Amino acid sequence: MADLDGNNEQKQKEYYTDTPQTAPNFFLKGSHQYDWGLQNRLAHIFNPESGRTIMLAFDHGYFMGPTTGLERVDQTILPLEPYCDCLMLTRGIQRSIIPASTQKAIALRASGGTSMVSTIDEWEGEIGGQPAKLARPGYEPLSNEHLAVDIDEAIRLNASVLAVQVFIGSQHERQSLQNLTNLIDAAARYGIAVMGVVAVGRAMERTAKYFRMATRLMAELGCHMVKCYHIDDGFDTITSCCPVPIVIAGGKKRPEKDALQMAFDACAQGASGVDMGRNIFQADAPVPMMKAVRGVVHEGMSASDAFELYEQLKSEESS
Ligand code: R5P
After folding, report:
1. pLDDT value of residue 52
2. Residues lower than pLDDT 70 in the chain
């Protein structure tokens, strides 16, 4: 414990009277006027040196159950944890599997309430003992989500960002936008960030026009970051007119080389990183893939160099 006298007779005091106090800027797009706690949480998600993030998404179970690669999160995801910046997950997996000693930022899935079964267009089975077939064209109840985590719980789980799905153009557009704004208002009281996730579905085309509208709309409503899919044509126009950072979802599993190319293109076209799941945990060699994605996002590697790294690490792993 320090004694009560702060003066050290041996050392001259220095007040730096000729040096103005520095006014540090904040590195992240659109985020320079936020309060300290929110900026600090964002600096935990995004690497202040590269300005980008690698979020590892494995929240799929909230509507898909144990999808391929997530049957045993302890076996498949924990080995990847050291190489990402942020873990995107549900509270159930966070509490049951993720060690509380993790240093990674937490992106907590905060909307839910529907399942992949409810999106089936046709159903065949029995009703009252008789064979039956139901057709439900255009039926899209996946969008019928509500907020599935309250703000006290998010604080208990030390979330840096809360993720909410937004279904623009769907049957439940208004409801999902209300989920978003309710969550933003609740999270704002504590300096927690909110990430709007652009959902895609039958009513929602994967075009630059659609994604420009959806991402901008969410940013205007107060999202601190947006998750969107990458598209080949016009992705740079989406990032350009969205005033907050965009991270890309990986989407369905594709060949590793293509996934690395997509991550590279997205970053070159203004994305602030990736929020990738299946293309990492369903890769032939997930840890090498994670390291290769890291090369692209944080170390400025080309997609072909990153793929070479992937192949090399994969063969080292199997030898
Ligand atoms: C989907 O709604 C989930 O929230 C995932 O986080 C998201 O789809 C990203 O995962 P993937 O890269 O597998 O598409």
Report:
1. 98
2. 1-4, 118-140, 201-204
pTM of the model: 0.91
- Residue 194 backbone phi and psi in degrees, to 5: -125, 135
Residue nearest to atom 10 of ligand 1 (CA): 277
> Six-digit token pair at 119?
């999106």
Q: Is 29 a catalytic residue?
A: no
Could you tell me the domains of the chain?
A: 44-114+147-283 (3.20.20.70)
Beta carbon of 177 within 6 Å of any ligand 1 atom: no
Taking the C-alpha atoms of residue 290 and residue 112, their distance in angstroms, rounded to an integer, is 27
- Tokens found for residue 273: 């990183």
Asked if 312 contacts 284 with a C-beta cutoff of 8 angstroms, the reply is no
Say yes or no: CB of residue 69 within 6 Å of ligand 1.
Answer: no
Provide the 8-state DSSP code for 20.
P
In this structure, the strands spanning 146-147 and 130-135 are unpaired
Q: Say what the pLDDT of residue 204 is.
A: 66
| pLDDT value, residue 124 | 64
Task: Assess contact for 185 and 174: CB atoms under 8 A.
Answer: no
The model's pLDDT over 28-38, given as tens digits with 9 standing for 90+, comes to: 999 999 999 99
